[in-house]
Structure formats: structure tokens, C-alpha cells
Amino acid sequence: MSKPKVAFYWCASCGGCEEAVVDLAEDILKVVEAVDIVFWPVALDFKKKDLEAMADGSIAVSFINGSVRLSEQEEMVHLLRRKSQLVVAFGSCSHLGGIPGLANFWNKETIFRRAYFTTPSTVNPDGVVPQEKVIVEGKELTLPKFFETVRALDQVIDVDYYLPGCAPPRDLILNAVGAILEGKLPPKGAVLSPNKSLCDDCDRNKTKPEKLTIKEFKRPWEVFLDPEKCFLAQGVICMGPATRTGCDERCIEANMPCRGCFGPTDQVYDQGAKFLSALASLIDFKDEKEIEKIVQTIADPAGTFYRFSLPKSILGRRKMEAIK
Amino acid sequence: MSNSTFEPRLVGFLCNWCSYTGADLAGTARMTYAPNIRIIRVMCSGRVDPQFVLKAFREGADGVLISGCHPGDCHYQEGNYKALRRYKLLSRMLEQLGIEKERFRLEWVSASEGARFQHVVNEFTEQIRRLGPLNFKFDGGSHEQA
Amino acid sequence: MSQRITIDPITRLEGHGKIEIFLNDAGDVERAFLQVPELRGFEQFAVGRPVEEMPRITPRICGVCPTAHHMAATKCVDAVFHVEPTPTARKIRELIYNTFMMEDHTLHFFFLGGPDFVVGPQAPAAERNILGVLGKVGLEVGGQVIRVRRECRDIINYLGGKVIHPVCGLPGGVSKGLDEEHRVKFLETARYAVEFARFALKIFDDVVLKNKEYVDLVVGDAYKLTTYYMGLVDEKNKVNFYDGLIRVVDPEGKEFAKFKPADYLEHVAEHVEPWSYIKFPYLKKIGWKGFIEGKETSIYRVAPLARLNASDGMATPLAQQEYERMYQVLGGKPAHNTLAFHWARLIEALQAAEAMVTLLEDKEITNPDIRRIPTETPTEGVGVVEAPRGTLFHHYKTDERGLVTEANLIVATMNNSAAITMSIEKAAKAFIKGGKVSEGLLNLAEMAFRPYDPCHACGTHALPGDMPLVINIYNSRRELVEQLKKE
């Protein structure tokens, strides 16, 4: 009985999801024994040509992490989709767009301008910019195209399951891999983590007052953070209410508020908008001027509420023409 | 750079008890107002989820209006205050996303204020006409122009 | 007929990388390029973010060394707010940081770089991985490597929340303290780490240094590159990973510059080429001289060997002994031998472990005073640490509310980008002649960049099997003539 074929691939990724797999430590050997890894650029020799030569659908499952930023990544994920029965979006970047998704507040021109011209250490008097195709000393060199907009994986290909987190925790990975190998998966499209919000599992939940209201917002650097009390009750923005559980509240345990890397629960489409709604409801003022004042103290609404999910938000990116 | 042939597409979320009734009044009293607004009736302005507003813009709206009862008059006591707070925060966030705050409005219109409704819609329509179409696009991928 | 050799993808580079080698009509190497086809734009999308969030955003530059970014960002935010961490907070940060250096360096040696040496460049591909290493040194070692790595990562998990993307850094302190129970537990880990680091050096000694063939390779010309060297040093010019002044020595070992992190712009500049998304840092005062080595160069290297070259010694006693030994074998300072990065890496791991012990033996580290609330208006700051792969610069400017208006990042491996491309070209030129492309080329080309441990060193050779290289040989009509693949 041949072992199921498995592939791993990374798009615009930091490698943390790859590290998460290595962090399975001894447990990874059980996985390695049970499957036949046919493609994993970081680890094994197989090339795009080998992938192309495989029969369509011959890979049981492909785990793809990272968001789609470059043309090479777009081509690879289309190829992997053809060759795989199941595709799992592994980690926040492929699930929601992730941190690289913050680039959707900008576009290619502004990013290139910063990287290759206006950064104070860059010395570029000839205005050189990386090119998709360039002749250097008579030799042609190519680079993949840099898109204007970052996309999450399901904005490019059909995705079967999502493994959330930045990076997904060990237990979640093991459970997911186990479920796949045993064929015990939920309906297609499921996020492989419980469908409740972080607050439901958080130890600090019981410290929330009966009616939670906020009179003043505090940024984490401004105050001593009480290690037992709910962050929102301290006036510190915590994305817990709008974030799916399953991470063991690791950031909370380190006494820092949640930033939403697991994305929303099933009932919510746009994590940032939903959180905005909840947070606004907690503000304890009725007078328009007071409300205006307190809202101004929230430092970076879009970048905080959409920290990991900008590409998958309803708007998905900033409209650039409005920038003068 | 607006052109005189641009017809703004506006979406209005009107609360059942006050604003929708006020709009009805404008209609039955034959107070002419710009036909650009598409009205969606909700039970309370506090029912308006920010996701609705974002969806409207994503789907082609050039402007979005929320209208509810005057502060203190909400049929459900506090719903309109929630709307007010959400509106303030959402306006800020929309600006960060490149959508000018003039495109998103919150107004209080009571059941008897047909004329006020007429005025609000006409003014909003002209303001958006001057601002121009939003043309929101989520570009990305090998089909990109840029 | 001129030929072109593409090595794509190479493994263990930030995301993706490819090597292009061009042969002239005689079949000798004319040029080689290492292209990094990766860019995400952190320097731009940092704009508008609250600066205290940068320690939570920038680790996503790299999931293998997130702690390095977290620490550089935290120190930068200290500087932006003009606040110093409390003494206890500083000790906790140093503990996290040294623990991270120790486990990262150890992982690299056993899983990644080590196999080059321990198993040997001529060994079959299937053996050049952790299993081959264990075959030579014993299976028990594998268990120990996993144990030391896991225990070290447990320390970072506890204090930082998550080992992949820690969260505890704040301007003026850290978010979580250490209690006595955990101090004692972690001290045990630290002591074990010292033992293990010494053991790793012994393995290096037994397997590499006692093997003349390897030693010849290490000191030989093909892998030698004459450049400047940069690293952080403390007030005694000893190697320090967490803090200090940046010191640069010239190819003869003389001090060329020593400066505060805040002054980096006077000394470091970045050059742009159209064939790679990565930039090429060089010494500003000399100016860009191209991809050359030797006396006229303006290229500097970073990471283990460079740090040792740029310093006057190690800061801890056992590591210092090993430092002296290494330079004795290599014939003095500075050492230009690229393969010696592997050796220097182990010496650094030992210092990191010794530092862990010193920090944990000090009961001060359990003091609850871990936060100092900033009182000054934030403006601008620079934070620098030594990441495992080199000097890491974070620089942020903010408005008076502390929202980022500008960010500049020079990221560890990047400092070596010119050197890596040159090393590959040099090795290629040494081993590919007259159009003959052999199996040995595969190994030897890889060996040119692996010592630098380019960021993303994860997993390669962690699983048994294939050497991750294929070489395509195209004739001048772009037809595939031959394909060499390691089986």
C-alpha cells in the first residue's frame, strides 16, 4: 500500500511555518514515516519539472504557506492545485494574507521607491531598480514579477482547508495531519481550529466586569500591564473577541494582548470590521465630542484590526489614488 | 475631476422607526430628492454592521449614508449611540483605506423630518458628484495592468 | 560555445534563490550571480504603525531568527522613546537572546552546515545530512541535539510567549518576568547547554580538525575571500550579541571604524543591482567598488567568523580558549577562510551558553522590576543586535504620537549578499574548467554559500535523502544539453 504523497511549498513566507513543522521534533518522524514527501523546496531536491511530470491529483495533500506576492508564487500554487487532491492553506499568510498583507496599504511603486531610493542607507545615483528581465554583461537574467496587491491563497486557487496561526501551534498541526491521514476531515472549507473566540478559552475572561466599558485607551507601552486582568478591561486593545481560539493564548501568557493571527470565527467575514464594531460598542461615551476625542486616541485602527487579515478583508487593500 | 455626467451611486441604511418613516414622508409629500440613493431599511441604526458599509463600497457604492433617530429618541434606547461610535471609528479606518470621509455619512432624521431627509440626500448626492466616482478595485495577479 | 548553468532553486536562502553561472567560449566560468527573487516591503508598510508594534511585526521578516528581529526592534523602540530598560529587564532580554543564539547555532551545525564537514564534501549525497552526521558521531548525539534545542526553545517560549515570533519586548522593559522556580529550572538547561556546546566543539575537533583533507579545504584558496569584517563588541572589544559598539576591521585586521549604532548611516550604504531584489551593503567611507575582494574592496562580511575577526576575543572563558585555538590553527587574525564560519559558529554557541549560565546564576534576574514607562516624546532611534547570520540594523522615525513615519532595515544576511555572490563565483571558477561540469561541482558550489547560513536555514538535510541541487546545462541556443542531479 503506497504511502500518501505530500508536498510543502512556501510563497511570500518568513519560514516560520517551516520552522513550526521542524518543531514537531520527534513527532515529525512519525509523520515522515507515514507519508512520502514529494516536494519541499527548502528540504528536498525535487524541482518544478518533477512536479509538472506528476499526474494531476496524484498528490494527496499540499500544504502551502505564505501569501501570493510574486508571479513565481502564483504559478507554483496553480501547479500544486492541479497536482493535488487537497490543498491546505498553512498559517496566517496563506489563510488571510498575514503580515506581508500590510503591504496592501501601499503598492509596487511606493514599495520599490522606498526600498531602492528613499531608504537613508541606499545609494543609488543611477536609479537602478530590479527588473523582470535584464541583460548584464551580455547575459540575460530574470526575476519574477512583483504584483501590486498581496493575495491570500484562496484568492488565487481553490483551498480545501485552513490551518490558522502565525505560526500554527504544534498540536493544531499534529491534529490536522492526523485527521488527513485518517480521512476524518470536516466539510470542505473548514478552518482546522475550534469555532469559538479566544475569550472563551482565555484565563482572563473571568476578570471581565459584568458590563465592560472603556473610558480611555492605553497603548501597551504606556501602562504597567496587569498579568491577570482582561486587557480590554485595562483599556488595552486586545483582538481576543474577534479572534478564533486554538492557540493556547500564548501571547496572553506572555502578558501581551492578542493581535488576531488566527483570524475570525466562521460567522464573521471581515475580522477587522467586526472587531471595530465590538470595540466601538465598548466606548463609554454618548456625547459626540467625547466620542470623537477617544476615537482619535486609537493609534492605528486599520493596521491593528487588520494586522493579519488585510487582503481577506472586504475591501482587501487601500485605494491608492486617494493618496496625494 | 468630476464630470457632469457622473451619477453617484449611493446606499442609505435607514432606521425603521425614524429615518425610513421620514423618507416615506418626503415621498408621500412629493418632496423631490435625488434618485441616486438606494435605501435599505434596518430596524435600528445600531443594526448597521461595519461590514455592510464596507461591502457597499466594495460593490460599487460611491457614498454610504446611515440615518437614525436623534440622540435620546432611539426606539431601542441606545442603538443610535452605538451607531455614532461605530461611525466615528469606521470613518477613521476608511480614511486609512483611501476612502475619503466625505463619502461616509451619519445623519439623524426623525419620522416627521421629510424635508430634512430631502435636504440630506440632495446635498450628499451633489457632494459625491463633485468628489467623483470611487472606482474601488482590488487588483492583484497576472491580469494586473500596472 | 558559451554555456549557462542554472541552479534553481538553491535551498536555505530567504525564501527563494537561484544561482546562474555563465561559461565563456573556453568553458571557464566568466560570471556567477546569486539572485534573490524575494521582496515584501517591510520598510514601507511599517509606515503608519504604532512603533511599539514593530517588535511584533518585524519578526515576520524571518521565522528562523524572529528573536533577532524582536530584540533589535525592542532596542530600537527603547531608543525611539529615549528610555533604558530596567537592569532586570535587560538581563531577561540577554537571557532570551543568548539562549536563542545557542540553539540556532547548534541547529545549524548539526542539521545544516555540519554535514559538509562531518560527512565530507566527497561523500554521497544521501549521507550528507543529519543521519550521516549521526552515523559518524553516534545516534545518541541526535537525541541530545533535539533535547538541547527543545529545552532552549522552552525558555524562549516561557519568557517570550512563542518561540516563533516572541512578543515580550516593550520600550523600557519586557512584559513578563522570571520567578525563582523557573530560574532554577532554566539554570539546569543552561549548564547542559554549556556541556553540549563543548561536546560539539569536540566533535568538530575529532571529525574535522584531525582530518588533513578537511583542514586543507578550510585553509585553501577556493573558499577564501579577503574582505573587511564587522561585529558588535563590548567596551573591552569582546564579542557581544546583544549590545555594544559596531566595530569594523580591515582585511589585515586593523580597526577601521568603531561607532555607535545610531551613527550607522555614516558607515554603511546599500548598493542596488537590477538582477536581484536584495541590496548589497558596503562601507560608505570607501564607496562602492564593485564585487571585488582584497585591499581595494569596500565589501565587509558579518556573522560568526566576521564577529570573531572584528573583536579582540570572546567575553567568556571557555569560548576564549577555543577562540585562541582556532586562530592558531588558521594561522592568525583575521581569518579569511569562509569554511571557518562553521567553526566560529560553534565557539559563539559556547559563549552564548556560558552567558546563559552567568545570567541565570544571578538572582537579580527574578526581580519584579521589569518595566520602565517612557515619559519622553518619541522621535527616532536605531537598534542593533548581532543576529546569528550577522549584524542586524533596525531604524525607525516616528511622529510625536509614536506612529512610524519611516523605517530602514539592514538585515543580517543581507550584509553578506555581495560576499556570498563572490564566494560562489570564486568556487565556481576554481572547480569548473574547460566546460567540464562534474558531480563535485554540486557539492562544492553549495559549500560556498552554506557557511554564511543564509537566512531560512531550515530543514535541509533534516530529512534523509536527496541533495537539493540540480544543475541544468544549456547551450547557447537555450536548449537543455545535460542535467546533473544528485540522487
Summarize the helices and strands and which ones pair or pack.
The complex is a heterotrimer of chains A (324), B (146) and C (487).
Chain A: E1 5-10, H1 16-22, H2 26-34, E2 36-39, H3 48-53, E3 59-65, E4 68-70, H4 71-83, E5 84-90, H5 92-96, H6 108-118, E6 133-136, E7 139-142, E8 146-151, E9 161-163, H7 170-182, H8 198-201, H9 250-253, H10 271-282, H11 288-296, H12 301-305
Chain B: E1 10-15, H1 19-28, E2 37-42, H2 50-58, E3 63-68, H3 79-96, E4 104-108, H4 114-131
Parallel strand pairs in B: 1-2, 1-3, 3-4
Chain C: E1 4-7, E2 18-23, E3 29-35, H1 42-45, H2 54-57, H3 66-80, H4 87-118, H5 130-137, H6 139-160, E4 169-170, E5 173-174, H7 180-209, H8 212-219, E6 228-233, E7 245-249, E8 255-259, E9 268-271, E10 280-283, E11 300-301, H9 304-310, H10 317-330, H11 341-361, E12 380-387, E13 390-398, E14 404-410, H12 417-431, H13 439-449, E15 470-474, E16 480-485
Parallel strand pairs in C: 6-11
Antiparallel strand pairs in C: 1-2, 1-15, 2-3, 4-5, 6-7, 7-8, 9-10, 12-13, 13-14, 15-16
Distance between the amino and carboxyl termini of chain A: 63 Å
Shape of chain C: globular
User: Which secondary-structure class do the elements of chain A indicate?
Assistant: alpha/beta
Q: In CATH's first tier, which class of the domain at 84-222 and 337-367 in chain C applies?
A: Mainly Alpha
Strand element count of chain A = 9
Structural class of chain C: alpha+beta
Overall CATH class of the largest domain in chain A: Alpha Beta
- The number of helical runs of chain A is 12
Account of the 3D structure:
The complex is a heterotrimer of chains A (324), B (146) and C (487). Chain A has 324 residues and is of the alpha/beta class. Chain A is 30% helix and 14% strand. Chain A has helices spanning 16-22, 26-34, 48-53, 71-83, 92-96, 108-118, 170-182, 198-201, 250-253, 271-282, 288-296, 301-305; strands at 5-10, 36-39, 59-65, 68-70, 84-90, 133-136, 139-142, 146-151, 161-163. Chain A is globular and about 65 Å long. Chain B has one domain (18-130). Chain B has helices at residues 19-28, 50-58, 79-96, 114-131; strands spanning 10-15, 37-42, 63-68, 104-108. Chain B has a 4-stranded parallel β-sheet with strand order 2-1-3-4, sandwiched between helices. In chain B, helix 1 (19-28) packs across helix 4 (114-131). The longest helix of chain B has 18 residues, at 79-96. The two termini of chain B are 22 Å apart. With 487 residues, chain C is α+β, with helices and mostly antiparallel strands. Chain C is 39% helix and 17% strand. Chain C is built from 13 helices and 16 strands. In chain C, a hairpin with a 5-residue loop joins strand 15 (470-474) and strand 16. Chains in contact: A-B, A-C. At the A-C interface, helix 1, helix 6 and helix 9 of A face strand 3, helix 1, helix 6, strand 9 and strand 14 of C.
